[in-house]
Amino acid sequence: MNNVLVDRMTLPGEGQLALRLDRTFKSAWRSYRRAFKRCQKKLSRATVHQMRVETRRLLALMDLFKPLVAGKAADELSRRAIQPFKTSGRLRDAQVMLCDVERRLGRFPDAKYFKTELLRRKKRLGRQLERKLRRTRLKPLKNRMDALREELRVAVKPVEGCHRAWVRLLNGMDQAFANVVARRGSITPTKPHTVHRTRVAFKKFRYMVEQLRPLLSRLPGSLPGRLRGHQKLMGDIQDCETLLAALDKFMREEKSEARRLRKFRAAVKREHAMLMTRYLRRADELFSFWNPAARPR
Question: DSSP character for 2?
């Protein structure tokens, strides 16, 4: 598959870069705020997932902007945004595991005992996240966002600032992609956590690409979908790994149920192996997603 050709030589002019970055900033904040408020109203699988996605996009944008602004404004924003995100991770895992177990109940009815445990976990974690969301106020976060937007306007206003900002943004993309490549090189088929580490790095790169897409004039329209599909290959492995870990813990603690769940666990283990094989066949697709060789002069 051919490398993606990104037009890095088309440098946005003075004012244009500032305007586009400001629009990107406002769009990311608007999407995050909307997802946050929806999650406050209803803790469904969809709303929790969307809040996590928008948080990751916001964090990726902060990472891109760090070289452009002075002080620790971006770090402080990241710290505040990550607080509900950490709490929501465990709930998201429980929601995904419940869907996986329910999908298999027809073939493995004894898994209903494990499902009951997951339902209890989901309710407990849901209450924890609800309390966290009630205590979280968006006003302080918005104030810091506004201050950071003003810093960005100042940083890219002069011509030399515009050129410097553009180079630093592209360098940040190159570094994020290089980290993904390094993680890909360390993947060991017998160690699923190496795939998870690659996935974490890939998510950051993917959301950076999405945020800078309006500034990259020759970015193929098919690339976002390909990035999403590649990430899903790794995500399916991680979901299966999480399910196996929770199932093993349940079987250790509830020994009376362990025998009933052996066939169910074996089926999950087979699916895990199949997902790993499928991903490894396509793992090197990532090299077609970004071409770090060309740099702006």
Answer: P
Q: Is the pLDDT of residue 130 over 80?
A: yes
* Whole-number Å distance between alpha carbons of 151 and 147: 6
> Would you place residue 66 in the very low, low, confident or very high pLDDT band (cuts 50, 70, 90)?
confident
Closest-CA residue to 97 (of 280, 268, 277, 278): 268
Q: Work out the number of other CB atoms within 10 angstroms of the CB of residue 112.
A: 12
Q: Are the CB atoms for 135 and 52 separated by under 8 Å?
A: no
- Give 143-179 pLDDT, tens digit per residue: 888 888 888 777 777 655 677 778 888 888 899 999 9
Which two three-digit tokens encode residue 116? Answer: 């009951």
Longest dimension (CA), the chain: 71
List the domain boundaries for the chain: 16-288
**pTM, two decimal places:** 0.86
In the structure, how many helices (H) and strands (E) does the chain have? 10, 0
Q: Would you identify the CATH topology of the domain 16-288?
A: CHAD domain (1.40.20)
Taking residues 205-226, report their average pLDDT.
Answer: 83
Using the 8-state DSSP alphabet, how is residue 284 labeled? G
Q: Give me the amino acid identity at 19.
A: L
